[in-house]
Design brief:
79 residues, four-stranded antiparallel beta sheet, 3 helices, globular, Conjugal transfer protein, DUF3781
Length: 79
């Protein structure tokens, strides 16, 4: 159900200027982090849970944290 909400609002998913560097550093990626995180969310094996005001996308070797009201990617890190 939570994954459905995120996928229905995928065009609203974004991050802050500070978030860009933080996500790239934490995940060890050079690519644009919002597209990267959205592609991870869209994978069949991604699992989305909601705790408090955040969604947590658990996929492959990482956890992506997305605010549930603003759809801002707060952070992402490897497990």
């Amino acid at each position: 159900m939570h994954k459905k909400v995120l996928l229905e609002n995928v065009e609203k998913i974004h991050t802050t200027e500070m978030g860009i560097g933080r996500i790239q550093k934490n995940l060890g990626i050079d690519e644009e982090p919002v597209s990267y995180c959205i592609s991870k969310l869209k994978q069949d094996n991604s699992i989305v849970n909601k705790e408090g005001k955040n969604y947590y996308v658990d996929v492959d070797d990482c956890i992506i944290t997305i605010n549930s009201s603003s759809f801002t990617i707060i952070t992402a890190h490897k497990k």
